[in-house]
Specification:
With 90 residues, the protein is of the alpha+beta class. The protein folds into two domains: 39 residues; 50 residues, IHF-like DNA-binding proteins (HU Protein, Chain A, Irregular), CATH 4.10.520.10. 42% of the residues lie in helices and 30% in strands. The protein contains three helices and five strands; from the N terminus they run H-H-E-E-E-E-E-H. A three-stranded antiparallel beta sheet has the order 1-2-5. Strands 3-4 form a two-stranded antiparallel sheet. The longest helix has 20 residues.
């Protein structure tokens, strides 16, 4: 599913204009990004939660050359599915 698919669902289900639907989707996703950037998690009951995890630096390997490569520390988004989502996917 893409962002455009979400917009089309809002248009069909809610009968709103494309501009309003795009604004809602962009606002929702922007709010999620801002929350994660500020270090706060996101919890959507029944769907799941998003958290930021920090990965330590490590030594990796280039698969083509076999050369050792330094991989710096980084932050990654971690998603944990909620109970309802787990049940729906069984």
């Amino acid at each position: 599913m893409t962002k455009a698919d979400l917009v089309n669902i809002l248009i069909q289900e809610m009968g709103m204009s494309k501009k309003n639907a795009e604004t809602i989707v962009n606002t929702f996703l922007g709010s999620m990004i801002e929350s994660l950037q500020s270090g706060k998690g996101i919890e959507l009951r029944g769907f799941g939660s998003f958290r930021i995890r920090e990965r330590n630096p490590r030594i990796g390997r280039n698969p083509q050359t076999g050369e050792k490569v330094h991989v710096p520390a980084k932050k990654v988004v971690y998603f944990k599915p909620g109970k309802d989502l787990k049940e729906a996917l069984k």
